[in-house]
Each structure stands twice: as structure tokens, then as C-alpha cells.
């Protein structure tokens, strides 16, 4: 590697790491400020500052430490302990006492579906309705039968452990990514309130990691399988189309006409099948217009802006050269619609109403977190002394912007 290319790579890694770390801090301090301020003894802003300082110091110290063979044991012990912790929280926290209804919205939606009723008419414990698209309701069914929808979070945590074990080659990297996750107040909030949002995107991340490996190694996939799998993911949440587009649109563009037709046909069949399962019991078209998941998921942004933010990642998919660039692009394009909605709410309602009075649901930022954590972990080596990290910079990362 020439000194020029090495310097360029270091510069781009620094730029990317700076951006992703700032986003990591921004998302988590929003949760710290909001919820620490509800405790009379605490000033939310002071607690957020202390959190930022501590997580920054701990991260730098961890990165520069060399614990040799202990990383494997620490990773395994931490994984087991936190998995048990998620089970404990889900069993011992009474969901009906929570002022967040994602868990109960999914539960009543699944119950209605299994009873042959229209799931989007079912009312949860806070008089809300589920906004989950059909696939996510179907994913939740096994956990409904286990007696606790919150166990979806425990499953998603194990899936995240599996993902980072596949993506990162060293236990130091795996442990770093794991620690960043469990020291994220935004994720701890997800666990406590039994939310399905971040679990949804951990599942999407797993498929992205699986598919990108096969795509970039030119392993032939069955277009029937690809179409069914990716369409099913898009039918979990509207914004799922963003990481799927970044991952797959370039690949789809290069298909032959015949493969494109097969892919589209299977995709349409999947949409029709899942839509029939969940929408066939609706009493009327008027009722569907008032009670459907699309309206609930898209109420934060104008439809035209949402379409633009969904189509643009398709163009950028041609710039995705490896898993690092897919993750980074996904962070950017998932962050955009949430940030626009957040700052629009601040503009019209003010910061206090937006954050503290919950005019905006800041948990939408958690869609970004699984991709953000992997992107952060990929670039941490840039903080090592130059003679220690140059050998780790051999993997070419796409230069964005």
C-alpha cells in the first residue's frame, strides 16, 4: 500500500468513524436526557454529559488495551449474562404498566389474526393499534405462543451475537461491538419496554450480512429464494426497503430480463399472499383506509418525501462495494427520514414538546443502531497508534461523498 493510498484510507476511516460515533452519542443522549430528567435528583443534560464522557474514555481505553486471550471468555460470559438479563426483564416487567404499547399492539394484532379477525382493528392496552406489516406479525407468532412477545428481543439479541461472530474475525472486535450495544441506553429502553422495532432491524441486518457475502463472492442464488426473502423483509416495515435497496438493487439491475421477470413475479406473489393473510378480514375499504399499518408508519413525513428517501438508496447501491459501505450507506439513509421528522417536529412544536412531551417518538432512531454499531466497530482501528493499525487497513473501504 502506497503512503498516499494509506493516508487516503486513514482519512476516510476517520471521517466515517467521527460521523458514526457522533450519531451513536446523539441517539443515546436523547434517551438519557429524556428519561433521566424524569428523576427529580438528576439533571438530564448533566447525566448525558457524564455518559458521553464515560463511554468515550472507556472506548478509547478498551481499544488500546491488549487482553490477549481473555477476549473470548469475556465475550462469551457477557453474551450469556445479558441474554439471561433480557429474559429476566421480560418476565418481571409488567407490560401493562408501561406507557409504551409496541409489545401489546403486536400481541393483540397476532391474537386477532389467529382468531380470524382483522388485526389492524385490534386495540392494545393504551388504545393504540399495531403498525406492524404482515411479516413482522408472522415473525411474532412463535413468541406469542411462548407467552411473552418480549422474548422476540431475547431472540434478536442472540441473532446479533451470531451476526457479529460471523462479521468480525477477532474476539476483541466482537466484544467491542457487544459492549457498545449493551451500554446503549436506547437499546436498554427497547429491552425494558419490549419493543419490536430494533429487533426488526437486527433481523434485516442478519439477512443483509448473509446476502452480501454471497453477492460479492458471486455465489449464485435462486432468484425465487432471493425474491421471497427480500420481499418478506420489506413487508416488516416500510423503511426496511432502504437497506434492502442498498444491498440488492445493483444486483437486480444486472439480472437478465428473464430473471428480473421471475423476481418481480415472485415478489408480487409474496405481497399478495401476505396481504391476503392479514387484510382479508377487513370489513370494508373505508375501514381499511382508516385502520392500516401504512398510514401509521408514514404519518411522520409527507408521502412524496418518503418516496424520494426510498428511491435514492437505489441509486447509491451502485456505490456499495463491500459490507462496510453497505452498513455506512444504510446508516445515512435510515437516519435521514427520522432526522427530518425529528427536526421538523422541533421546528413546529419546540424542543421541549418534541422530546419531553413525546410529540415525536425518538425510538425510531433505533432503526439505525444495529448497522451503526457494526460500522463503528469496523473503523475502530483508526484510533490505534499508526504502526499498529496499518496492517489492519488492507480491506478497501468505499470512499463516499
From TrEMBL:
The chain crosses the membrane at residues 19-36, 42-63, 70-91, 136-163, 175-192, 228-249, 261-279, 300-320, 326-350, 362-383. This is Glycosyltransferase RgtA/B/C/D-like domain-containing protein. It comes from Saccharicrinis fermentans DSM 9555 = JCM 21142. Keywords: Membrane, Transmembrane, Transmembrane helix.
Amino acid at each position: 500500500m502506497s503512503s498516499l493510498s494509506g493516508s487516503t484510507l486513514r482519512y476516510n476511516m476517520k471521517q466515517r468513524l467521527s460521523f458514526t460515533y457522533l450519531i451513536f452519542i446523539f441517539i443515546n443522549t436523547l434517551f438519557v436526557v429524556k428519561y433521566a430528567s424524569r428523576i427529580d435528583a438528576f439533571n438530564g443534560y448533566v447525566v448525558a454529559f457524564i455518559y458521553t464522557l464515560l463511554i468515550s474514555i472507556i472506548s478509547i481505553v478498551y481499544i488500546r488495551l491488549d487482553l490477549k486471550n481473555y477476549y473470548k471468555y469475556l465475550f462469551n460470559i457477557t453474551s450469556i449474562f445479558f441474554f439471561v438479563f433480557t429474559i429476566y426483564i421480560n418476565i418481571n416487567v409488567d407490560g401493562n404498566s408501561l406507557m409504551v404499547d409496541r409489545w401489546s399492539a403486536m400481541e393483540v394484532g397476532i391474537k386477532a389474526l389467529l382468531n380470524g379477525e382483522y388485526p389492524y382493528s385490534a386495540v392494545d392496552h393504551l388504545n393504540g393499534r399495531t403498525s406492524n406489516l404482515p411479516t413482522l406479525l408472522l415473525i411474532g407468532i412463535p413468541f406469542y405462543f411462548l407467552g411473552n412477545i418480549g422474548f422476540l428481543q431475547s431472540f434478536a439479541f442472540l441473532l446479533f451475537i451470531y451476526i457479529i461472530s460471523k462479521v468480525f474475525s477477532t474476539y476483541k472486535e466482537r466484544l467491542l461491538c457487544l459492549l457498545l450495544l449493551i451500554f446503549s441506553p436506547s437499546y436498554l429502553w427497547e429491552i425494558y419496554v419490549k419493543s419490536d422495532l430494533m429487533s426488526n432491524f437486527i433481523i434485516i441486518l442478519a439477512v443483509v450480512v448473509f446476502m452480501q457475502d454471497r453477492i460479492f463472492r458471486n455465489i449464485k442464488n435462486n432468484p425465487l429464494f432471493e425474491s421471497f426473502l427480500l420481499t418478506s423483509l420489506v413487508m416488516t416495515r416500510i423503511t426496511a426497503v432502504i437497506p434492502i435497496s442498498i444491498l440488492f438493487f445493483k444486483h437486480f439491475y444486472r439480472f437478465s430480463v428473464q430473471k428480473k421477470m421471475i423476481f418481480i413475479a415472485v415478489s408480487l406473489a409474496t405481497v399478495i399472499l401476505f396481504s391476503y393473510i392479514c387484510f382479508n378480514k377487513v370489513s370494508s375499504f373505508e375501514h381499511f383506509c382508516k385502520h392500516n399499518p401504512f398510514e401509521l408508519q408514514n404519518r411522520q413525513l409527507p408521502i412524496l418525501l418518503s418516496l424520494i428517501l426510498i428511491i435514492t438508496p437505489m441509486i447509491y447501491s451502485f456505490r456499495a462495494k463491500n459490507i462496510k459501505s453497505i452498513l455506512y450507506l444504510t446508516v445515512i439513509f435510515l437516519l435521514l427520514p427520522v432526522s427530518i421528522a425529528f427536526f421538523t417536529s422541533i421546528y413546529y412544536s419546540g424542543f421541549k414538546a418534541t422530546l419531553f412531551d413525546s410529540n415525536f417518538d425518538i425510538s425510531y432512531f433505533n432503526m439505525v443502531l444495529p448497522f451503526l454499531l457494526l460500522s463503528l466497530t469496523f473503523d475502530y482501528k483508526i484510533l490505534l497508534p499508526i504502526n499498529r493499525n496499518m496492517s489492519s487497513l488492507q480491506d478497501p473501504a468505499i470512499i463516499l461523498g
